[in-house]
Amino acid sequence: MAANTKSARRAREIEHTRRDIIAAAEQVFAEAGFHEATMQAIAREAGFTAASLYTYFASKDEIFQAIVEDLAGALSATFDAHFPAGLTLEQRLELLLERQLEVVLARRQALRILFDLGPQRRCEPDEGRLPFLRRMAEFLERSGAAERLRCPPEEAARVLLGILQATTLPWLLGGATAMPDPARHSARAVDLFLRGVARPAGG
Fold first, then answer.
1. 97 and 5 inside one domain
2. What does the DSSP assignment read for 137-199?
3. CA separation (Å) from 176 to 54, 129, 169?
4. Whole-prediction pTM value?
5. What is the CATH classification number for the domain harbouring 28?
6. How many CB atoms lie within 10 A of CB 50?
7. Which domain, by its residues, includes 12?
8. 169 near 148, Cβ under 8 Å?
9. Are residues 52 and 70 in the same domain?
10. pLDDT averaged per 10 residues, the chain (length 203)
11. Do 51 and 134 lie in a common domain?
12. Do both 74 and 155 map to the same domain?
């Protein structure tokens, strides 16, 4: 029993340390760029020696992959969070996107790293998006969107992702300085998704 408790405590300590290193790496990557960043710089930012850093990560590529997985996990968790009963499709989508935008706001530096990397580090077009698109399509199906949409949930998920990227990337990549309000931004994205960008006739 004592051995199990000690093992569990050690596992928590390792996970906590890895998260500290990931946070430090995000800062270093954001300041120096991925290609110029070094394990020594990451170690200094995290308060470790370079030698001790290698106990947790073999290379900065491995740290980069951990950042990608951590972000993917945070976004995926928004689909599994509790949604109050009785919400309309619009309300469920707005709440989901609001939660996802809060993740984006909190992890802006990490997301910018992914977009700032050179071509040799970029994923294939759908490699990073496919899990998100699958979760979004499943969410639309569970939310009863089939009756409202003119296309399959898989196609609708791509449309919604396109709207999110078009309305969020200018701010995320530095073209816009004002941070979007999650609730208002989410409501606007859902409105564009469900009603399109054309003005109503006579409007």
1. no
2. HHHHHHTTGGGT-SS-HHHHHHHHHHHHHHHHHHHHTTS--SPPPHHHHHHHHHHHHHH-SSP
3. 38, 24, 9
4. 0.82
5. 1.10.10.60
6. 13
7. 1-58
8. no
9. no
10. 74 90 92 90 93 93 90 93 94 96 88 66 57 94 86 92 88 70 92 78 54
11. no
12. yes
